[in-house]
Amino acid sequence: GIGRPRRSTRVPCAALFRSRRARALRPDDARAALDFDDVCYFVTHKIFVATNWGLKRLRREEWRHERAFLKTHLPYAVTGAKHGYGDVHLVGEFVQCLRCFDDVARVDPDVAEATRWICSRQNKQTGGWEVLDADFKNSYHATICALGALLTPKMRGVAEKARKKDPAANAPARAPSGAR
């Protein structure tokens, strides 16, 4: 936001998330951080990229840290973010990401409550969300996030989590000893 110090772009995103990962266990500490929104958007966009914007499922065991972060902070995004009246942008992105997990998509009561909350925040006159005359970009993003959460995409396949490559796997094969 305006007047907020920005994090250096030199800090790798993965390091940023790892340094904040423990905060999911202490939600109040994480939410008080100046960069809490940035960490939230890092987590959601990491999932969006891996799933081709929600078109692939995620394996719970491979995405346990991101999943725990989203589940921990979803109720706060509904009730406490943005000075106590919730954040349509974050709630929409959290719901979209959580729907990529089979165990959450259909049965999680927090996801169901967040979906109802998103519907309640819609501007009935315009059909959009966070409709502000002076800020089209904000209204557009809020509406896209809300609609993304309300749609249930037909998922194809499972997203594989990127792993560090083993340099030995790319080394040329050696001839057996004694071979000429």
Number of strands: 2
- Label the overall shape: globular
Question: What's the pLDDT, averaged over the residues?
Answer: 78
**End-to-end CA span:** 67 Å
Radius of gyration: 20 Å
Helix content: 40-55%
H/E element order: HHHEHHHHHHE
Oligomer type:
single chain
Task: Tell me the major beta sheet.
Answer: 2 strands, parallel
Query: What is the spatial order of strands in the main beta sheet?
Result: 1-2
Structural class: mainly alpha
The percent range for strand residues is under 5%
Number of helices: 9
Contiguous low-pLDDT stretches (5 residues minimum) are 1-12, 21-25
Give the topology, please.
Blueprint lengths: L12 H9 L5 H6 L3 H15 L6 E2 L5 H16 L1 H4 L3 H11 L3 H4 L3 H12 L15 H15 L7 E2 L21
Parallel strand pairs: 1-2
Helix pairs in contact: 3-6, 4-6, 4-8, 6-8, 6-9
Structure overview:
The chain has nine helices and two strands; from the N terminus they run αααβααααααβ. It is globular. The protein is 51% helix and 2% strand. It is an all-alpha fold. It has helices at residues 13-21, 27-32, 36-50, 64-79, 81-84, 88-98, 102-105, 109-120, 136-150; strands at residues 57-58, 158-159. The model is unreliable at 1-12 and 21-25 (pLDDT under 50).
What is shown here, in short?
This protein is mostly helical and 180 residues long. It has helices at residues 13-21, 27-32, 36-50, 64-79, 81-84, 88-98, 102-105, 109-120, 136-150; strands spanning 57-58, 158-159.
